[in-house]
TrEMBL record:
Gene Ontology molecular function: any one: metalloendopeptidase activity
Protein name in the entry: Peptidase, M23 family
Source species: Eubacterium ventriosum ATCC 27560
Coiled coil: 28-111
Alphabetically ordered keywords of this record: Coiled coil, Signal
SUPFAM superfamilies listed in its UniProt record: Duplicated hybrid motif
PANTHER family listed in its UniProt record: MUREIN HYDROLASE ACTIVATOR ENVC, PEPTIDASE-RELATED
């Protein structure tokens, strides 16, 4: 009877040992697998973010290269336009010279015709007068030679004037050809400018798409980071619970071993007391009790003469603060200095594109952004109304316009306080 009770106790203890730890370690493994999956997802998001950042950087570099080409092209277009204007002026001047030469030829021709007519109508009388009125043969020959020279002079003058006219006409023809060549160059430059502008706009949109994807990816990474942090806490909690269960199980095993040893000891002493068996049975039941789980204003000249439309004003637009005013105009429109001063900088910026800053003294600067070409350089002294650049679409810009701003002691201020 006592042997049967001891065997029952051993079986119960064995079942307790095999049940709890298996479930506990299985839970830890599951939670760690979840954590590993989240970490893999985060790494994939980071890898994707690195690719997007590289693509964004490439797009920015490409936009900068296109902006540089646009800047050079705008400068060449400006020079071509100046050459075309000068050539047209020369053509106009040459045409006047040609008209004057024709007038002189006509006058000389009319005079010559009158003299020939007179000599023809009065030929015999004139010869008789020469004979009788000449004091000597020498005087006669001199007068006859004068008449011949006069006729020769008329012919020579007429030929000379014709040659002058031909020379002027040839010069005009050369200028007309030069004008046509310049117009062909100008048309090609405008075509190239349109293509580059469209390409820049396309890349700007591509850049915005990359920025949107990066923002979405970073938000996803933040969410994964939060999930990983929470999962790490769950893993730590389950590991702690498993550790506590293992400790409790170890204590149970030791207690069971002691009870088994005590039971064996009691069995070996014989039937000294009838109460021993009942005590043993009570002790074995206690082993199945379960487990625990544990500026001063108004002085500036308008920077874009003839263009007064404002596409975006100074102040908030949505959640962003616009630090100047945007004045739209076609590419190549001349931009002038708002006031006299010294050009502090004239260079390229990824955001501002081709831009200029003019120091007017007393901490006041006027700022001009997104130009297609710069007509002045740093250190240049400029006066109000002087040409400094051409309207463009360089930098972070969406369409041809001038972004005009004013800085006072290093901070952007309302430009309307300084414009006339």
């Amino acid at each position: 009877m006592r042997k049967s009770k001891v065997l029952s106790f051993v079986l119960v203890a064995a079942l307790a040992v095999t049940a709890i730890p298996i479930n506990a370690f299985g839970t830890v493994s599951d939670e760690k697998n979840k954590l590993s999956d989240l970490q893999n997802q985060k790494q994939q998001a980071q890898d994707e973010n690195n690719k997007l950042q590289k693509s964004k950087s490439d797009a920015q570099e490409y936009i900068q290269s296109v902006d540089k080409k646009l800047t050079n092209l705008a400068t060449e277009m400006y020079k071509t336009n100046q050459k075309l204007s000068k050539t047209e002026g020369k053509i106009s001047k040459t045409q006047k010279e040609l008209d004057n030469a024709q007038v002189s030829i006509n006058e000389q021709y009319e005079d010559m015709k009158l003299r020939i007519k007179y000599m023809y109508e009065n030929g015999d009388t004139q010869m008789i007068d020469l004979i009788f009125n000449s004091k000597s043969i020498t005087d006669f020959l001199n007068k006859a030679e004068y008449i011949t020279e006069l006729s020769q002079y008329d012919r020579d003058m007429l030929n000379k004037m014709k040659k002058t006219k031909e020379k002027i006409a040839s010069a005009k023809s050369t200028l007309v050809t030069e004008k046509k060549n310049l117009q062909t160059i100008q048309a090609q430059q405008k075509s190239d400018q349109t293509k580059l502008t469209n390409l820049s706009a396309s890349k700007q949109q591509e850049l915005k798409n990359y920025e949107d994807l990066i923002a979405h990816n970073e938000a996803t990474s933040d969410e994964l980071e939060a999930e990983i942090s929470a999962q790490e806490k769950r893993v730590a909690s389950v590991e702690e619970q498993s550790k506590n269960q293992a400790a409790a199980e170890q204590a149970r095993r030791e207690a069971a071993a002691k009870k088994q040893q005590a039971a064996s000891s009691n069995s070996s002493t014989g039937n000294t007391s009838s109460n021993t068996g009942s005590n043993t049975t009570d002790t074995s039941n206690s082993g199945n009790s379960g487990s625990s789980g544990t500026v001063s204003g108004g002085g500036f000249t308008w920077p874009l003469p003839g263009h007064t439309t404002i596409s975006s004003g100074y102040g908030y637009r949505g959640s962003e603060f616009h630090k100047g005013i945007d004045i739209p105009a076609s590419a190549g429109t001349t931009i002038v200095a708002a006031g006299s001063g010294t050009v502090e900088w004239a260079n390229y910026s990824t955001t501002a594109g081709n831009w200029i800053g003019i120091n007017h003294g007393n901490g006041v600067y006027s700022v001009y952004m997104h130009m297609s070409a710069l007509l002045v350089s740093a250190g240049t002294k400029v006066s109000a109304g002087q040409s400094i650049g051409l309207v463009g679409n360089t930098g972070a810009s969406q369409g041809n316009h001038l972004h005009f701003a004013v800085r006072k002691n290093g901070a952007y201020v309302n430009p309307w306080d300084y414009l006339k």
